[in-house]
Write a structure and sequence with these properties.
alpha/beta, Arc Repressor Mutant, subunit A, 6 strands, single chain, Rossmann fold, 12% strand, six-stranded parallel β-sheet
Length: 249
């Protein structure tokens, strides 16, 4: 890619988006038009909002139906438009993006929310996941990689930017000071379910595999999270994987 192309959009916090000029519209425009995910972009930088809109709409699969430059404006737009996806910055001028996310979830918002930020701080990552984020993405990502991550979020997956999984696992381990004693405190069934969670299985799949009811799985998950001092399934999965690596090293 030539230097002039890279200068079409210049923003020092989002070098990946600065190269969106190379992104080409999806060839099958008719098919994609029937599957466009309505999106609201909430970021206090106008240039980033414009870059995000261009990338998402040119890349295919998204239609930006609203933009907001503040948290309060973003909340109003999200509730009014009921989009499929909200792309939400962590740092907003009038409020913390994670606080805005928490308000959305407390109000019962069921749409997908992807946090996008320049921050690799594990505290921000944990805070976003605990508040109910469906994705934690980085503004420095390459355009096509970011598009792929956003599509996965819309499809219902929990998505972390590349390289952040290990950071989160370490943060969880250091935060809750978990060790072998905590694992010993789990029942045999809770250990089985923890391993299934680490393998990425849903409650229904775990229930089928262990021949118990979905409701029973939910109860066990609640108990094991409490015992381990964790707040979500993703924290439990990453903690389990981290413990496994420590034992094998």
């Amino acid at each position: 890619m030539s230097a002039p192309q890279r200068q079409i959009i210049s923003w020092n916090q989002a070098p990946g988006l600065a190269r969106l000029a190379s992104s080409r519209p999806c060839a099958d425009g008719v098919a994609q038009a029937r599957m466009l995910a309505k999106t609201v972009v909430v970021d206090d930088h106008p240039l980033f909002r414009r870059a995000a809109r261009d990338l998402m709409e040119r890349g295919g699969g998204f239609r930006v139906v609203g933009e907001a430059g503040s948290g309060r404006e973003g909340l109003k737009l999200a509730f009014a438009l009921q989009p499929d996806l909200v792309l939400l910055d962590v740092r907003l001028g009038d409020m913390d993006g994670i606080d805005a996310l928490r308000r959305l979830r407390e109000a019962g918002a069921g749409f997908r929310v992807a946090v996008i930020t320049a921050s690799r701080d594990p505290a921000d990552l944990q805070g976003a996941l605990r508040a109910g984020a469906d994705g934690y993405l980085l503004k420095s990502a390459e355009p096509q990689a970011l598009l792929a991550q956003l599509r996965r979020v819309v499809a219902g997956q929990l998505v972390l930017a590349e390289g952040l999984g290990e950071s989160l696992a370490r943060s969880i381990r250091d935060d809750c000071r978990c060790g072998a004693v905590d694992l010993i405190g789990l029942t045999t069934r809770e250990r089985q379910i923890l391993e299934c969670i680490a393998a990425g299985h849903s409650n229904l799949k775990i229930a089928d595999e262990l021949q118990i009811t979905d409701a029973t799985v939910k109860v066990h998950v609640k108990h094991l999270l409490k015992k381990l001092g964790l707040h979500s399934r993703v924290e439990a999965a990453l903690w389990c994987l981290d413990q496994r690596r420590r034992r094998s090293s």
